[in-house]
């Protein structure tokens, strides 16, 4: 029987496997102390530990005799692969732990595939059978090697290929976010990937925006300031079409909006605002205090991803707009349900499509009337107003925001 002092730890092999947590280590130690060493420590012909680094340390701490078994391999590469594979099968790893093992296995599998190809080439010459099999025949040899190695490594650690690729991408783009995967329920692989993709799409859109020049007509007036400080001519606005933030902490903005709307709307003018479903009653009360009449609810049906309100157990399939009127509405008939077109949130987290603003501006107003959006964001309402030959006043305050939505709105409206 081999003695503890004869065993050798290869630091490279030791780092290939994830360390046990303190709790896992103590549990294993208690088991060995009470029941002895059941699983032999695996070593190679040179007494280098291949499997059982934690068990070795515990036996050393407890002064327990070890059991061992010798494994030999045709190549050093096969031995390295075994060190990782045999540990993966026994460990309960989360997605982050699996992916870190996947990263170690992938280059080893790729190297092994290359060696097999070389050996086959020597044996069969140019007519040797193709051993790299993938479903994509358009891939080059190197790409096939990469694809096959990735698939094998993902399968070995019990990760789907898609999940492994997404984690690759997250790590490449944001290593800090990558390390947070699985640490809380909020940061799943898909959530982290979605965050990265949103940032990438935003950069792409911003790059496109930078190419655009600002040439605004006199009928378009944009202001980079808080809407409460903006002096709008009383009784000049035919339609306020806007999308304030919905959270309870922003209800005071609806109070300010109501006060301003009561002054700037002409008789017969409308205020149409997106609202959070949970605050519909409160907002109606706020608006009616200043003399605006609640006219009708408008429903915008989602076509893109929808949210889940866990506290209410509701899957949200629409957005609500509340329609208020100063006096008597004078416009055309409108539908109270419209199906929206999914709008990416890369340029503004609350961005909407132009489908709804196009429709309601067209039928609630006539050409050359003034449309006002005090929460302009990236300029969606302004784009619709310009397309429909309406005058437009937009307001967006960037003083406390690192994202220059005002400049983005200027360029988008200018080039609409």
Quick summary:
With 416 residues, the protein is of the alpha/beta class.
What does this molecule look like?
The protein is an alpha/beta fold and 416 residues long. It has 3 domains: 85 residues, Conserved hypothetical protein from pyrococcus furiosus pfu- 392566-001, ParB domain; 115 residues, no CATH class; 195 residues, Vaccinia Virus protein VP39 (Rossmann fold, 3-Layer(aba) Sandwich). The chain has 14 helices and 13 strands. Strands 4-13-12-5-6-10-7-11 form an 8-stranded mixed β-sheet. It has a 3-stranded mixed β-sheet with strand order 2-1-3. The protein has a two-stranded antiparallel ribbon with strand order 8-9. Strand 8 and strand 9 form a beta hairpin. Helix 7 crosses helix 9 and helix 10 packs parallel to helix 11. The longest helix has 30 residues. The radius of gyration is 32 Å and the shape is elongated. About 2% of the residues have low confidence.
